[in-house]
Each structure stands twice: as structure tokens, then as C-alpha cells.
Amino acid sequence: EVQLVESGGGLVQPGGSLRLSCASSGFTFSTYTMSWVRQAEGKAFEWVSTINSDGSRTYYANSVKGRFTISRDNAKNTLYLQLNSLKTEDTAMYYCRRDADLQRGQGTQVTVSS
């Protein structure tokens, strides 16, 4: 059974940082392109970032470019998202996603507020 479990969210002040993790199991993590997506309350899902299977290529939405960094540790079957210089508009539920079938975890809440 494929499992994706996000963690690391929380409440942070504008300008702060968080590191999200996504622990995977039930599939060969190292062979899949993975992404982070987010959904603010009452809004549609928004793609945030993608990393290819070996981590050699990364892609970012314009809204997060230069502030967020996606990475992965295939030995630990874990995907990461480093969030820096957070803004109030980054407040959302963040999900990791296996791009092959769009399967995602339960999400972790990020709230940016003073």
C-alpha cells in the first residue's frame, strides 16, 4: 500500500522558515518524480514544486521561486520542502504528491501569521 505522510507544518511569523517532510512507503520512491502542492482554504490546489527521481532537476512555481527548496533523500524514502521568507499568502495545507498517479498524503498545515 502506498503511503505518503507529511509533517513539519506549524504556525510561523512572516519572514520565518519551516521544513516540511514527506515520508513514503509501499513503493520504490527513488523511481518516481515527486511534487509538493498546496491548498489554501476555499481555493483550488496550487502546484508548488517538482523534483525528478534522482533529484537532479527541480522546478518551482513563480510564487515560491527563490524562497522554497525541494529536495529528496532516496536512501530514506523522504521528500523535503524548505520554506524560507514565508509570507501570509503561503498559508495553506501542503501535500506531497506522487506525480505518476497524483496520489498525495493527508497534508500538513502551514500558517503564516503575526
Describe the secondary-structure layout.
Blueprint (H helix, E strand, L loop, with lengths): L2 E5 L2 E3 L5 E8 L8 E6 L5 E7 L6 E3 L7 E6 L4 E6 L8 E7 L4 E2 L3 E5 L2
Parallel strand pairs: 2-11
Antiparallel strand pairs: 1-3, 3-8, 4-5, 4-9, 5-6, 7-8, 9-10, 9-11
The mean pLDDT is: 97
Name the beta content range: over 45%
Query: Given the helix and strand composition, which structural class is it?
Result: mainly beta
Low-confidence stretches: none
Instruction: Note the run of SSEs as H and E.
Output: EEEEEEEEEEE
* Biggest sheet architecture: 7 strands, mixed
Number of helices: 0
What does this structure look like?
This protein is an all-beta fold and 114 residues long. It has strands spanning 3-7, 10-12, 18-25, 34-39, 45-51, 58-60, 68-73, 78-83, 92-98, 103-104, 108-112. The strands form 2 sheets. Strands 2, 4, 5, 6, 9, 10 and 11 form a 7-stranded mixed β-sheet that branches. The protein is globular. 32% of the residues are buried.
In short:
With 114 residues, the chain is an all-beta fold.
Question: Descriptors for this entry?
Answer:
mainly beta, 4-stranded antiparallel beta sheet, 7-stranded mixed beta sheet, about 110 residues
